[in-house]
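User: quick one
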Amino acid sequence: MSRAPFSQSDLSFAVGPKFQTVWGLREAAVFTLEGVGVSAFLGFALTGQIVGMACALAAVIVAVFLLLSHLGKPMVAWRAIVNVRRSWISRGTVAIGLFCVLGALYIAGSTTPVLVPVEGIQTPLLYMVALVGLFILLYPGLAMAASAGVAFWTTPLLPILSLLQGVASGFFVVLATVDSEAMASLTSQLPQIGFGLIAALAIFMIVYAVVMLRRGGAAALSSTYLVRKNPLAFWALSVGLGLALPCIVLLADIQWGLIVTIAAIGRLVGDVAFRYTILKVGSFESVI
Amino acid sequence: MSKYGMVMDLDRCIGCNACVIACKVEHNTPAGINFTKILEYETGTYPDAGRQFLPVMCNHCDDAPCIDVCPTKATYAREQDGIVLVDWDKCIGCGACVLACPYDQRFQVFDERTMFPGGTTDFQRPDVQRADTGAVAKCDFCYHRIDEGREPACVEVCPTKARIFGVTDGSDPERSLDHLIEQDSTTTLLPEKGTKPSVYYVSRGE
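Assistant: Done. Structure below.
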């Protein structure tokens, strides 16, 4: 049976704000993988976990392939690097490529020094990885903030939120996978750092929602939808699993491996859910 | 070299959708994609209620946000007249321009179906190049017609002359839109976005 050539809904030229449908769950997963991959790589590098670094780098590479699958014409995706001067997507694409190369070099230098024979290069290399990584953590927010059509995204708060989401998720992934001795050798303030990250994230999420609500128009509509119309994605997953659960684990000073792992998974789910909700509620301004 | 623009006279628009159909025929756009639309809304309250029609399309902005965000430079403004176009060979279909357009006038082509199953009808242009699947398409001001010295299809077909096409830089006094644009009753859509649209709207409340 052939499909109808068009549906009636195609012809309803609706008046009023319209929610965007271009970016969704896949893009949210890409942004999360990039953020977690980068921050976890740095965490594993600081604790000397080579397998962890490799896994984190793999997460970033998976994000790249997932990103390719979202493109309308993935076969010409290489063109995405040609407008570095003006496009955040171009800059992000270049940065991710650079991160993968530098990260692979750092891992190679850590495992087989003969592959990177320049003496004392590892530390500057890690600084470069960190610098590029910082940009990648900010990049989803920067790319979204450049989307002038969606008022809810056009704010400098979004890159900061993106950074905090990525760092917090990466922190819990490292916490759940690295043995406590290696972590303790780094700092004794781990619970405080984790709690500080979650608290900062929660504060920025509240500030973001309030600022957008006060902006009015489509931004206010999106903010209202974020808080009132997304009980599962926002409240249960993003806030409940992504913020409250890791917070409880840290405050209760629970150090059982399984519980911390569950908290890390909760943080990852919360990360994807938050980014997805932000994308989903983004709406175009009404022209009337 | 001329800077093209369009004026929509809202007092004349009767919402017949002839422009929508003419555009569809001219560009043979896929099902569900219309480069121009007529939005319809109610004004006033009973017993002084009325209907108002608002034709919308790509505004071919002077400061088009869609150009800046394009990672491949597929979206560009034609040098000679400022018409904003998409090079489908360069477009990778990332959707950034769709999200950057405040007017929601860019469309990603995911559906190859034509309006009529089996291809074009006698009333459609079979020779027109359609956007690649996955690429982003939009109103191109019918630049192929402009280059032949004709008006865009939507302008030509409008029975009430609600769409007026011309130049906005004074380069051609006979086709200048300046006298319409300079009226107090003329505005653009979402002027607060700072995009400097080339499509203007005039309504004297007649």
